[in-house]
Design a protein that fits this description.
Layout lengths: L7 H20 L7 H9 L5 H32 L11 H18 L3 H4 L4 H25 L3 H25 L2 H11 L8 H20 L1 H7 L3 H6 L4 H23 L5 H13 L4 H23 L10 H20 L5
Helix pairs in contact: 1-3, 1-14, 3-9, 3-12, 3-13, 3-14, 4-6, 4-7, 4-8, 4-12, 6-7, 6-12, 9-12, 13-14, 13-15, 14-15
């Protein structure tokens, strides 16, 4: 494994870029705010309502979402040894989408109980969380009985197909208003969280990060292959369980609070590997954190359409901006680091 000291300079540069993107993200919007005002607001010498109650929570949400999806994507790609694996291959997002679909569109099909539910920000979070949790519980039960890791990947994809089919049936019988509400949720949003919601989000996110850090040694060992990892004394089932829990906490919470956000989880690990040219997770994990947060802040800054009252769907921006970057990096390097 390469010496971590050789990566001090790129980590320093990425940290400075993250700080710059953080301030730029807070500065841009329908009303531009000078950096000086932002700094004064952060240290408490001035009280700016827009910064304190809207832009700061949104910027922190972007950091949590970008880094969390990037890390969970890295975990899944290493666990399944598949460059196309992302944070949602276990069906976590599909479960969240099904929970939200039942809440929003269930009254058109089932009526009764669903019609009495109040659709609010918290009810959407709870519905998405319950959907994610039920899928996670099923995946954990399956993972305890299945020896082959690839079988878990296929089972997760099957869960995704089933939940997508149920959502399609609900959509067919739903009203135009319900469909529109569900589609808007599916666009993803970073600007809907207040400080009290962000605290809960941050706490669960921190648990996911702790599990991710605890799995670093196992992830590096798994790169050698499961059979060789077993010969080195690695408990495959236990390591797999920790990785699945970490991914589920990160991806499930992000989907519940910010909606399903595409591209980031799949692409950020690849971007990071191309930039750092290493497979050592002691390097990759913090690097993915920084790059994921930076990319998400940039995408959110673009989505805000500075000086305009309009905000574009964050899902569209992440793919439109990120996909060309990945293509360019792969063409430039001519090979995939994995």
């Amino acid at each position: 494994m390469p010496n971590t000291n050789t990566y001090k300079f790129p980590f320093t540069v990425l940290t400075l870029v993250l700080i710059l993107c953080f301030f730029t993200n807070i500065s841009l919007g329908s009303v531009s705010i000078p950096f000086k005002t932002i700094f004064e607001s952060l240290i408490g010498t001035t009280d700016n309502y827009i910064i304190q109650n809207y832009r700061l929570p949104k910027a922190f949400t972007a950091i949590l979402v970008g880094s969390g999806l990037g890390i969970s994507g890295l975990l899944m790609q290493t666990l399944f040894r598949n460059p196309l694996a992302g944070p949602f291959v276990l069906g976590i997002t599909s479960g969240a989408s099904l929970g939200v679909a039942l809440l929003i569109m269930g009254s058109s099909v089932f009526g009764g109980f669903f019609a009495t539910l109040l659709i609010s920000k918290w009810s959407l979070v709870i519905a998405a969380s319950l959907g994610s949790f039920l899928v996670l519980l099923t995946v954990l039960i399956v993972s305890s009985r299945v020896k082959d890791t690839m079988a878990i990947l296929i089972i997760g994809l099957m869960f995704g197909s089933v939940t997508a089919a149920v959502v399609s049936v609900l959509s067919y019988f739903s009203s135009a208003e319900e469909l529109q509400r569900y589609i808007f949720w599916g666009f993803g949003s970073l600007g809907d969280l207040q400080w009290n919601e962000l605290k809960i989000f941050g706490f669960i996110y921190a648990l996911g990060i702790v599990f991710s850090i605890a799995s670093i040694k196992a992830l590096n060992t798994l790169l050698l292959g499961e059979n060789y990892a077993k010969s080195l004394g690695l408990n495959i089932k236990q390591s797999r369980l920790i990785v699945i829990i970490a991914t589920s906490l990160l991806a499930g919470t992000i989907t519940a609070f910010a909606g399903p956000i595409a591209f980031i989880g799949l692409a950020i690990p690849h971007i990071t590997r191309q930039v750092f040219n290493t497979s050592n997770h002691k390097i990759l994990l913090p690097a993915v954190f920084l790059i994921g947060a930076i990319v998400m802040l940039i995408c959110d800054s673009i989505a805000q359409l500075p000086t305009s009252d309009y905000t574009l769907p964050i899902n569209a921006i992440t793919s439109l901006i990120g996909a060309p970057i990945v293509i360019w990096l792969l063409v430039r390097k001519r090979k995939m680091v994995f």
